[in-house]
Amino acid sequence: MNVTKFERFLSAARALNEWNVTPLLFGSLGLERRLNTDLQAEDIDILVPEVYLHDGWHDLVTLMEEMGYTLYDLHEHAFQKDGASVAFAAIESLKPFAGVDISKIPMEETGGAHFLLLDLRDYLRVYTASSKDGYRADKKHGKDTQKIQLLKSALNLVDTLDEPSYNKQR
Hints:
- The protein is built from eight helices and seven strands.
- It is of the alpha/beta class.
- It has a domain of 115 residues: Beta Polymerase, domain 2 (2-Layer Sandwich).
- Strands 3-4-5-2-1-7-6 form a seven-stranded mixed beta sheet.
- Helix 5 runs antiparallel to helix 7.
- The longest helix is centred in the C-terminal third of the chain and has 22 residues.
- It is globular and about 45 Å long.
- 24% of the residues are buried.
């Protein structure tokens, strides 16, 4: 059975929900979900409260191991199972990194899992900030630039649809 990356995320989200943690689906997979477009996400990026990357790290490792994942990169908090990579980072980093107000991130519910998902404007903030990062500028610049253009196009369409009809008639 070929399990999709999103299904893998939902499994992890349901497990985290049992701890009263609402994870954020981040990165390309989150953007795929927001845009309803296949962006060929390479991995699963999940943001959780920072405490789970420090004091609660052992518990998170145990949870992932119980789900059949193996820790393969301690620095990146990354796990692997059947060729799929799941990496964790701190949700609190969004504000200083990209100016994202984490208290305003929309919540979604799918397949019994509750999770957060950035809106288009916050994704634009994140990818714009990421494109200025040294590593990403070298390794992912083309992909980030494409995503920024895709986001700007999607936001233009949303803004056009949101305009009151009297503005369109002028």
